[in-house]
Amino acid sequence: xxxxxxxxxxxxxxxxxxxxxxxxxxxxxxxxxxxxxxxxxxxxxxxxxxxxxxxxxxxxxxxxxxxxxxxxxxxxxxxxxxxxxxxxxxxxxxxxxxxxxxxxxxxxxxxxxxxxxxxxxxxxxxxxxxxxxxxxxxxxxxxxxxxxxxxxxxxxxxxxxxxxxxxxxxxxxxxxxxxxxxxxxxxxxxxxxxxxxxxxxxxxxxxxxxxxxxxxxxxxxxxxxxxxxxxxxxxxxxx
Length: 239
What we know:
There is one protein chain. By secondary structure, the chain is α+β, with helices and mostly antiparallel strands. The chain has helices at 2-25, 31-50, 86-125, 129-164, 197-203; strands at 63-65, 79-83, 167-174, 176-180, 183-187, 192-195, 208-213, 220-224, 230-233, 235-237. Helix 2 (31-50) runs antiparallel to helix 3.
């Protein structure tokens, strides 16, 4: 979500800069164009700051856990397969539906905003430069849509592979949270997996843990500390 947020921010700022340049040049500007640019900046900022990645939310009031995972303190086995239960399969299916819905909304919104923004800018500028502006802005919006659609296909493919796997993974050992410009990652004893904001917050003070997660999408199901205390568990909204 953060990467998508940066795209929205860049496109919104570009629209606002073009609006400012047109005003300085004394050309008439459609008010909707300025509103569109501001809307994209706000949407991009929210996606950048509050983007939750592809994992479900941490347990809160009004939610229920859908997996009953047991703590394991086995040493000498950094990662091993755990048989997938129907509850875990339902959790992955729920995340697949959630990802498809969210990504589809973003694809449609970015494409529509690009086309509408390009049309408004083109009308404001007038012929012949207006047509060029339309293709530039509309192309940028459709380009963002294409990138998001590609990410959607990739994420759905990983989740579908997890649905067909007989096991998920449990890793026991040292852990370290690593923050980068591309998101947050959890360095386990034998691999590195991406984590969303809520699970990252739960493990940031841990240096040893038991982590359960899917094989392909790396969806984190649960985390226990060294004493066996559950510090994070996937939940979904109660029906």
